[in-house]
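In this supplementary section we document a worked example of the pipeline. Step one takes a protein sequence of length 232 as its only input; no multiple sequence alignment statistics are reported here. Step two produces a three-dimensional model, which step three serialises into structure tokens for compact storage. The input and output of this example are shown verbatim.
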Amino acid sequence: MVWIFFALCFNLSNANEIQSHDEIHRAVKEFAGNVTIQEVDPRLRLEPCSDDLSVRYPFSSETTVEVKCTSEKGWKIFLTISKPSAEPNINPIAEETHTNSTASLELIDAVVTKRVLQKGIPIRASDIEHESFPSNRVKPGHIKSLKYPIGMEPSQTIPKGALLSINMLRPPVMVRKGDVVSIIFERNGLRVTNEGVALENGGLREKIKIQLPDTQKILSATIQSAGVVKIP
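The serialised model returned by step three reads:
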């Protein structure tokens, strides 16, 4: 049974847009790996989450995960998970065939975490290392270069020993909600600058909403550098 905590700003949505249950399952699999996940009740209509979903083990046993939306109209649910049981012993001939098949696969170096990585804290070189995997374990989204993750921020808490993939990371935050930013507008050789207030966090080249203090008008702008945004 899905446990729902209404006390933590959980909301049921009567609108047409609801949180995709498939996205919830994808977030759990990115966090916990190859596990069997309890189905979300199809009658459950959650507000779409504007932030990345956060997943963690709330208890000492790793049989339950907490999936949390940290946006303004946030919610969280608990789902039970189970890891695949070890394959039963089979006859020696079949076992030898399986071993030889695995040994024949090419080994590929991919990046794994050396410790738990917390959401929003930039990754350092000492946080990651190379590990060799059979080629069938390394998918296109997995990261092979040790240089790529450095300076990036986890979009969720990542456990120790996890195989890093691109969708687990995001550019470092250069503008935070509430920051005063410089707004640049350029068109036909004309350049105008103004100041506004960021309404969202964002990294390099990400679009965020900003508000003009004088008119209260809300615009969409692209982050150019720390504290600087540009209106297309």
